[in-house]
């Protein structure tokens, strides 16, 4: 007969015996289930390749978790996805990985320049590089970063921490010709010269006298099959007003100098009207602020849908807008040839590049798809697409190692039996 | 947009001002035959100064030896390479004369050997058509100077365009007449001058 004091201890001993039997039962079920369904395993980035080979051939884990220091290469990403498709629960985590994506857009420019857009979390340091090394770096804003690259190689990378995204231009551009329309004058001459030096094929219709024009090249019908853009320098463009308007609405580009905005047929296309002229400075244009001293007719008032691209002080110097399928850019600078002739050592090159940028922003270009090289434009997004979102690292460590689990079970059993045995012995029961 | 201003090159050596009436005759022809917005009066521009870059067409002539200063050489090279058009005319009409020898020496020192301009070059069709290349001058036909008919002009070509044109034909004498004389002429001799300027403005 148990004494009143021994009853709770005896009940505790029974409870411990039940716990031991329950743990043994649970562990038996767990071992049998694992033998039939496979084990749970983890791997880090460095050992992913051999782990994948093992998981696919010699072991069949029910659940795997990969701790990523960097996004896996496409091969391993696909392999993990295939593993998931074959029935293994695949989880991943990578707390240091930042979502990064890159896109390369070729500019309509014979110099084969391109714009590179990188999306990354605001504040992240983005490095743009190619196979030969670093090209640029910047801290991402809410809109990511945009980099202009002269003659980029076939693929361009963006590196944000351990994440490296790679993209290639999807298309090659088929550029038409340019048509320059203007009177005989230095602005027309140097605009044609600069664009030809840049690599454009330029047709020109230059008014010289009431009896005739000087034509350069084969001035054809205005359509996007032939021309990428029209450059209208002065009011001579009035002769082509309706044709230019039709060309732009069908997708062609138009670069117009602000006096052209006064032409009745072209005024509806202009980004804005012409303000009060500001005379040029007597100082030669500097390399640092080359357009600061040029004569300027501010673009005002702006069309409601116009976008300001460049200001000088509080005046609008360059503005753009869309018209139908085409784009129009209007510059308020006059006599930009003075920049090329009288500017610093880099003036001719920079004047060329500036004009080429104006043209590239509006020029129509046919696109020819290129065979894609191996790229990985958004590695983290692709990983999420294939494997689902990342698991938390805490969850990742739980219950993964069968040996650790066995140690825990053994420890619990020993502890429970020892307490039960000690309890019995101290109250004198064998 | 800026007007076309006829500029005469003022260089440190020689007699740069030897054809004072040439500018007004070419300006008159330009206004007469074309719709180009031309300034009624020409300017003289110092070759060694930065003002040179304000005038992408410059006429340079003389009889005497030409020795450019370092500033003049630097400016001429830069001017031509940037797209300016420098017309150099031998006022002596004499390839054994001092102007020709020294001027061509200076030019070739800066740009290397000049290119002979073919008779079908677009310069000869830029406005008026000159089927036989550069028109002859009375000085050539009358046997002055070297007593030769120069059939070609020489040029420095930059990016496919004429940057410097050298003439031994003495257009400086041919076009340096009193302005009133033109109305008595059966043919206007300055028409080729119009081609030079139209070419410079459109190519």
- Number of helical runs of chain A? 10
Helix content of chain B: 25-40%
Low-confidence stretches of chain A: none
Main sheet: strands, sense, barrel of chain A: 8 strands, mixed
How many structural domains can be distinguished in the coordinates of chain A? Answer: 3
Secondary structure layout:
The complex is a heterodimer of chains A (430) and B (203).
Chain A: H1 7-37, E1 40-44, H2 48-56, E2 63-67, H3 74-85, E3 89-93, E4 101-106, E5 114-119, E6 125-130, E7 133-139, E8 145-149, E9 155-160, E10 163-168, E11 171-175, E12 177-183, H4 186-198, E13 202-209, E14 212-216, E15 227-232, H5 241-249, E16 253-257, E17 272-274, E18 299-302, E19 307-312, E20 315-323, E21 326-331, H6 337-342, H7 347-362, E22 365-369, H8 379-387, H9 393-397, H10 402-426
Parallel strand pairs in A: 1-2, 2-3, 12-13, 12-15, 15-16, 16-21
Antiparallel strand pairs in A: 4-5, 5-8, 6-7, 6-9, 9-10, 11-22, 13-14, 17-18, 19-20, 20-21
Helix pairs in contact in A: 1-10, 2-3, 3-8, 4-7
Chain B: E1 7-10, H1 22-33, E2 43-46, E3 57-62, H2 70-81, E4 85-90, H3 98-111, E5 115-116, H4 138-141, E6 154-158, E7 161-167, H5 171-174, H6 191-202
Parallel strand pairs in B: 1-2, 1-3, 3-4, 4-7
Antiparallel strand pairs in B: 5-6, 6-7
